[in-house]
């Protein structure tokens, strides 16, 4: 049975992207984003932040290295992948990450001479 595995998420990069070339010569770039969600609970507005790891490959990896920077807002389109491994203590571990197929870099907001964003 065919299933759907698709993600579209927008958030800010929480660190500088990490770029490397694999032993077989393929470009790879990893970064993490923070995505905010706001909702109302009773009379109170709640804001929660979730963090997601993103992995890019080939030309997209090069693009992310060139344009990505901590704090930059990005929109990521891709799919989820679960990595599984056994740690040194023999414990089974897993982590879900986003494999990006498209990354859109949002415009960097202009600041006035006092450092205030007008976005």
Automatic annotation (TrEMBL):
Complex formation: Homotetramer.
An example Gene Ontology biological process: DNA replication
GO molecular function, one term: single-stranded DNA binding
CDD domains in the record: SSB_OBF (cd04496)
InterPro entries: NA-bd_OB-fold, Primosome_PriB/ssb, ssDNA-bd
Family annotation (PANTHER family): SINGLE-STRANDED DNA-BINDING PROTEIN (PTHR10302:SF27)
Lineage of source species: Bacteria, Pseudomonadati, Spirochaetota, Spirochaetia, Spirochaetales
Name of the molecule in the record: Single-stranded DNA-binding protein
């Amino acid at each position: 049975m065919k299933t759907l595995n698709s993600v579209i998420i927008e958030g800010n990069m929480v660190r500088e992207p990490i770029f490397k070339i694999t032993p077989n010569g393929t470009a790879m770039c990893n970064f993490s984003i923070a995505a905010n969600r706001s909702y109302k609970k009773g009379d109170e507005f709640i804001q929660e932040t979730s963090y997601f790891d993103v992995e890019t490959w080939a030309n997209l990896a090069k693009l992310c290295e060139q344009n990505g920077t901590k704090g930059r807002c990005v929109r990521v389109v891709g799919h989820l992948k679960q990595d599984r491994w056994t740690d040194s203590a023999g414990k089974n571990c897993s982590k879900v990450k986003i494999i990006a197929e498209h990354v859109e870099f949002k415009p960097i907001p202009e600041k006035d001479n006092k450092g205030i964003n007008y976005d």
